[in-house]
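Exercise 7 asks you to align residues with tokens for two separate proteins.
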Amino acid sequence: MILVVFWLLCLHKPLFKDPTATVVVSQEGKLLGARIASDGQWRFPAVDSVPYRFKSCILEFEDAYFYSHPGFNPVAMSKALWSNLTTNNRHGGSTLTQQVVRLSRKNQKRTYLEKIIETFMATRVEAGYSKAEILNFYASNAPFGGNVVGLESACWRYFGIPSSELSWGQAAALAVLPNAPSLVFPGKNESIFKAKRDRLLQKLKEENYIDETTYELAVAEDLPGKPRELPDHTPHFTERMAREQSGNYVNSTIQFNLQRRINHITSEAYYRLDQNQIHNLAVLILDVNSREVLSYVGNAPTTAQHANYVDIITRQRSTGSTLKPFLFASLLSAGELLPNSLVADVPTSINGYNPQNFDRSYHGAVPASEALAQSLNVPAVNLLREYGLKRFYNNLYQLNFKSIDKSADYYGLSLILGGAESNLWQLTNAYAGMAATLNFFNSTSSEYPDHAFDEPVYLKKETNRVTSKNQNPELFDAGAIYQTLKTLREVNRPEGSENWEFFSDAQPLAWKTGTSYGFKDAWAVGVTGDYAIGVWVGNADGEGRPGITGIQAAAPILFEVLDVLPDSDWFEMPYDELVEAEICPQSGNLAGLFCPVSIQEWIPKKGTRTEACKFHQQVFLNQEGDQRVTASCYPLGKMLSKSWFSLPPVWEYYYAPLHPEYKPLPEFAPGCFRESEKLMEFIYPKRGETILLPKDFDGEQEVVLRVAHRNPDTKIYWYLDGVYISTTTNFHELSLELSSGIYKLLVTDSEGNSIEQQVVIDKAS
């Protein structure tokens, strides 16, 4: 009874507890890379089945009666015992089951007592496991020379192929190795190794496993030699899996052929960029709808000196302008902006913060869609201020930007221009989430997905988590997303860019670039109906270079990647979230009472809440049409009524030179009352703005004062604290040397119109 209990309990479970390597394969099952086990052995996770050729070879070589014995072979053991007692040759006579027991017991010293223990335990193994499982135990844990353990790792280390592709010659060579692993070392015992393999092949021929031709081809094959390097198509992704899925067989979502093509593209791009001392880049491709990772290039094939080991995809970097589309979509979805509404692009100062456009120029007024397409900074800051910093910050939280984890006030309005840090993983996923939301809306009965901005998935067993969520959008409505992506189809090239006609022939892509302050990070992110592509270019150590811009460095790679992806259709129009409205083509707003013409445009439903055009006004002119008049100074019957497009003075100051078709309002006829018209406006400084001097600065600071006037030909007289200081004509700008203090600035034009405000100059705290 005690013996039975001991027999039942003699096996520990699991039978093998050795650490295994992390093995990463593509969604097609091809090896992408592997990382060695923690004990320094190349031991792949256990195989599910043993290939036919190796199984045939190992059974013929080691245990021909495997399927008929109870765990030990009495005949073989008797022969081995007789040989050991009567000759100097040593034979084991062990079955594969006994060898599995010996491997699980860490190859105890070979004694007769140990043999009895192995035999006893082998019968228990046979009772507890199937023959297929026992064979898998052996194939997964047998030694194959050096630190190579298990069939699968041996196949890759010696032949560079999976076990399923073994030839008869290769299978026979591996079958004889566990019996004498030292035979594998190149230049040593090769003749013995070959003789063993060839005898096994001869036996296979005699047993009709192979024919004569196959036998001759097999014996002519080379023996395994020095272990090969394993494939490493996704080094940074494999390292990530080694941390997150240590010791596991990782069946990833990465597409093998696509990954190889992207590797080639990034290698070529790296050699180009390296000429300008730009050493690092990263590329991520996601399936928009399933959010599966299809390709993962964590860094360029650079050197250790330039941090080739750093996985850039997960590293935090300044976002540049890449968050602007989310602000645009937020405003559209909230019904606070129309796609082509004019927004201010004039010198702006907000609590000492002075945003600048990339080319340091101003447009005066620009359609919101054009401001986004051209990635203008000043309009973006003004729109963020109007929408609300904390409100937008909360939207980013919902978009799953986990790295933007400080308070909204910490980032301030610079948040929209790269004041916060994120990574390619989060950024590409957020763009994919917008596209997925729109696709889901169009493919259902106008429903919205749940968890559209959840993390991407990279394990094949994980499924798409997008589910129906009634009629309520998670963040942006489908109309706002469609208008945003439509805008992003426009190439956001700055002035001076050349040869961008090349990109217009590519398949439709909604894309955005970004460049961080100091030319340290270049971004390009784009989405089609099926794919999201993210590209980052720069130096891992943060060194800036003049060529590190989204347009110059990252965008070309984005379009090269797009070229190798299957064509995607453009997004369908979400009619259920759009309405047709009368739009003023000049202002981009809803048509107002005085808009001379209007056009029909599709806008997000909530866009009907926006205000009507305020830039068209009714003016009354004299009969010649060259002067404005009022009823107090001109006969009512002779007045001409006309609709006139007029911008605020500061907007007009920058807008008019860029738009020859723009006509400023005519002057009033002499003696006519101007009513409450605003003729002049301070460009700098703005009302309530404090001009800050450096903390340790003593003395006077040069301050440039600017004024915009509707009549560019008029003279303006400048007074500071009641004292006349200068006169300007046409270009109304004045430079003064001022020290800390509070001044009263008054300007008057030649017709007696005046404006005044305080100028406060103080030292930074």
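Second protein for Exercise 7:
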Amino acid sequence: MLKSLTITNFALLQQVSVEFSEGLNILSGETGAGKSILIDALGIILGERASADFIRTGTDFLRVEAVFAIEQLTSVMELLDEQGIVPEEGSIIISRKVARNGKNTIILNGCHITLAVLRQIGEKLVDMHGQHENQSLLKPEIHIHLLDLFQHDILPALQNYREIYRNWLKVKENLTKLEVHSREREQRLDMLSWQTKEISAAALQINEDRDLDNEIRVLANSERIARAINHAHLLLGEGLGDQGGIIAQLSEVKRELESIERFDDNLHPIIAAITEALYQLEESTSDIGSYQDTIEFNPERLEMLQLRADLIHKLKKKYGATIEDILTYYEQAEKELYTINHYDEQIEKLLRQRDSLLVELQAAAAKLNTLRKQSGRELGKEITEHLAHLGMPKANFTVHIASSDRLGPDGANDVLFLFSANPGEELKPLHKIVSGGELSRIALAIKAVFSQKDEISTLVFDEVDAGVGGEMAFRIAERISLISASKQVLCITHLPQIACMADTHIYIEKLVEEERTTTSLRLLTEEQRLTELARMVSGTEITPIALENAQQILETAKNKKEKWKKTEKL
């Protein structure tokens, strides 16, 4: 339910804040006062496109903020949970700011959300009903979706059908691919066989290329390595000339220091360090000697390794940048080879799957057909009953459901709303015969029926009274009041017959102050409400007769609503 709406710098609305109640909230005012602007602002907070043209002249931004109670709206709670947003005491606060520079900021309970998310949530918060929605009823493709919403058993059945339908299409697609590829099968088979044999014969090992590079580098430089190692070993051991090697000289240093160690204790750590260095050099000399024994110049092995490296390089150019990529390609090629070699088996398997799924799909479509026909009869009956209360007692509204051999994403049905306004007239599609006034009443009848079927708690009626008056206005008021018994309704109207049914009456007026035009909103008291109804009755001057008529209308409305509360139905 919409609890409050605050609007800043939106067209003629400089700063307004209005609170709404449960039941029927009537919005009235003189022509041009800005009633449609209020609906535009509400549309923006529900995710409709916002233009900078809406921003009030002389300001840099507009802001719309709404508070909704959502305790009973399970679908909204689920969407919020997906976004990681927690309601506060069963309510959400949505704020949307649009700046002249094009920046659009949307915040829900302190969290930034995208326009797409706002639209998803908005669709489940408020149902907007106006001339655009009326015209959508003339599109036959809408009819099947409305029918499917009428009975709760249909949507689960439709979901099951669509899952089978998707699987069936996927199998058919795979079959088509196999049939297309069959023409290239032999050529592809030869190529994959040659490729897999080439990779398999190479017997590649992970990191083999790295090890090869290391060994090739050593063998290619073996003579240089041998010279350097021999020279290093000589310097450490025997030495050059008469001085002896580094180890011998360091040993002599050690002996000299040890001979004077008794005279100065500060020499102890120096001698210990030299002793440790001596041990390490002796160990390193031994290691160098061992390494000398491993050095060999082997041109034959070097050539063999280089050939192996060239082979791996060629395979990388064909199948991947690394050995891992080559082996991955090999696995994929093996799988494709298996598929090609077992082509007939794959075709047979897919054909069995297709036929099995087709049987399931036809059964699911038949179930949908049964549910829709039952639902169609009930929907047509209920809408016809509502039309009778809307001044069309002889009207006949029928939901025509045709079965088809064509299986589509929504089943095997074509659904069309048929209508006849008078006895003896042939039922025809809405878009071929319905007039503007008839369409408005049909749309209202449909809304009255579906108000009990969905979770949305707030409905908005804009221009629902266009082109009607007198007794018909009373009948429309009754339907709207019926809807407001279970839903919150916001209704913009020019007719006192509808306004008198209000649980809350909000007056919208245009003011001019300091050469600036501003629209304001105020909640009417009972006395102010009577005055407004009198204005709506007379159209101009509020006369005693107009006040008396307004009082009578209010009394009639009050008595009807009391009666409805007792009977709980019209």
